Amino acid sequence: MYYIYMLRCKDNTIYTGITVDIKRRMDEHFSKNEKCAKYTYTHNAKKLEAVWQTENKSLASKLEYAIKKLTKAKKEELIKNKNLEEIFLKNKNIDVKNYKITKNNKE
Length: 107
Hints:
Distance between the termini: 14 Å
Strand order of the largest sheet: 2-1-3-4
Largest sheet: 4 strands, antiparallel
CATH architecture: 3-Layer(aba) Sandwich
Order of helices and strands: EEHHEHHHE
Strand content: 25-35%
Number of strands: 4
Radius of gyration: 13 Å
CATH class: Alpha Beta
């Protein structure tokens, strides 16, 4: 399983990432240990906003990339609605119909 997640930082910016172990990755971000992302180390991860699960690494990577390209307003909308399919169904590079995506509010 692969997880795509969005974190809110103390400066209200949003960080997006993927992982195979969501609990371990959150511990890394929030404890600011040596495996913490440079971005969340300097911007101080504050809150896990959204998590989605896929069975496919390729899809997880494509979704992460697409989320990172969204405007801040669209990211806020995605956090509010938690609906990846609605936002990315029209993106021809991401075929979400063939993969299981489980939306989770938070882990």
